[in-house]
Backbone:
């Protein structure tokens, strides 16, 4: 299939693709210290909320994948966005830990069952047969830019409703300020949902990309593809790296000794590295071997993880801290931009993209279940810099395994 979908289709896909994760993930990533404070949580409890999300999501990956092969992506995505925004109204009440776990389970359903596989399939449709690297690079880079933009607006909104001296702001002032951040996010997600429903039309005949029904035989055919099994390992390892980037702003707060606003600014800076990496990779990778670039991304992630794990990054080594942040973020975000872009190289049929994505994601995104509690436990059991070192040793181990799987994938599919 030739590329037929217009650029505004990709633009809306990018906006929707990040907006759906703003409430459950982007805000806690950028405002991690604030979230722990105003929701009265410790690292382990927040990690358990992510685990509930992950458990529900794993089930939804499996069940939701085939739906993407039967119904138009834009309609499924728009419904998911509205449902996710509705959860923000509960989030803004600062619910108890128990209710917060239920809310994250709800978000696990809304962001995955009707959204994840349709988004990946829509990106493959836009990329056609010659621009898969561009499609997924621009998608992830654009999503990163959207997340960074939401982060900047969030920091701005937060600063509007808090006293000039952040350190002296009361608990209730910080809670009230963050409530407005949640409200603006939910409203923005709803607007993007409406735009997605009415305007994200590819121009491609839907009969080319949809099935009348999904049969057991088709599911078996997907599971027989070696690329599917390798991508399970590759995505699992890369996604552990992505989850651990959540603690980089917290590292700035607790080890580099920045205040809440400055540590949130570090989180926003990291968000901007994602679009810069994704867009750059997307624009150049189709000229080279996309599978080899995936290998390089794991090498960079491993290098960044080892720098943090070594313990040489301290408050007096600001330049080294930011250099290490850049190295680890570039590696992680490059992997995210590429791992679904190699599906075509692995001979996964377009019409079965939803089913394949569902199968791959059941394993690939299990870090949603275990990564949060794992690094939360490592941080809480060894407060301060030693806990962070242990977290980055964990990252380095997964980066090594992911790199080996990426090398195997390249040897199978990247030489043709």
Residues:
């Amino acid at each position: 299939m030739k590329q037929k979908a217009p650029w505004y289709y990709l633009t809306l896909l990018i906006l929707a693709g990040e907006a759906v994760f703003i409430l459950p993930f982007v805000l806690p990533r950028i405002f991690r210290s604030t979230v722990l404070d105003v929701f009265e949580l410790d690292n382990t409890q927040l990690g358990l909320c992510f685990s509930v999300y992950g458990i529900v999501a794993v089930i939804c990956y499996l069940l939701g994948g085939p739906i993407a092969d039967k119904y138009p992506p834009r309609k499924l995505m728009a419904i998911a966005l509205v449902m996710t925004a509705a959860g923000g109204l509960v989030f803004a009440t600062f619910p108890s830990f128990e209710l917060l776990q239920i809310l994250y389970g709800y978000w696990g359903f809304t962001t995955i069952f009707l959204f994840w596989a349709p988004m990946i399939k829509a990106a493959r449709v836009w990329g056609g047969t010659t621009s898969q690297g561009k499609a997924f690079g621009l998608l992830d880079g654009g999503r990163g830019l959207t997340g960074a933009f939401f982060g900047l607006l969030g920091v701005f909104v937060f600063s509007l409703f808090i006293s000039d001296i952040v350190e002296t702001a009361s608990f209730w002032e910080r809670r009230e300020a963050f409530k407005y951040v949640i409200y603006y996010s939910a409203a923005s997600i709803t607007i993007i949902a409406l735009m997605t429903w009415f305007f994200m039309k590819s121009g491609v005949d839907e009969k080319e990309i949809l099935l009348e029904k999904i049969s057991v035989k088709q599911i078996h055919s997907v599971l027989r593809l070696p690329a599917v099994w390798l991508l399970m390992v590759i995505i699992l390892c890369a996604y552990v790296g992505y989850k651990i980037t959540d603690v980089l702003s917290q590292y700035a707060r607790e080890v580099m000794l920045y205040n809440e606003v400055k540590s949130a600014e570090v989180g926003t800076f990291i968000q901007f590295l994602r679009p810069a990496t994704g867009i750059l990779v997307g624009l150049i990778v189709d000229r080279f071997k996309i599978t080899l670039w995936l290998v390089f991304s794991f090498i960079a992630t491993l290098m960044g993880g080892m720098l943090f794990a070594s313990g040489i990054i301290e408050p007096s080594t600001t330049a080294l801290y930011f250099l290490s942040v850049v190295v680890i973020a570039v590696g992680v975000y490059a992997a995210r931009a590429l791992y679904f872009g190699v599906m075509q190289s692995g001979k996964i049929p377009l019409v079965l993209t939803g089913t394949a994505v569902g199968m791959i994601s059941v394993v690939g995104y299990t870090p949603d279940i275990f990564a949060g509690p794992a690094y939360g436990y490592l941080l809480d059991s060894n407060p301060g810099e030693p806990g962070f070192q242990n977290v980055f040793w964990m990252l380095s181990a997964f980066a090594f395994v992911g790199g080996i799987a990426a090398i195997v994938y390249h040897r199978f599919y990247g030489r043709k």
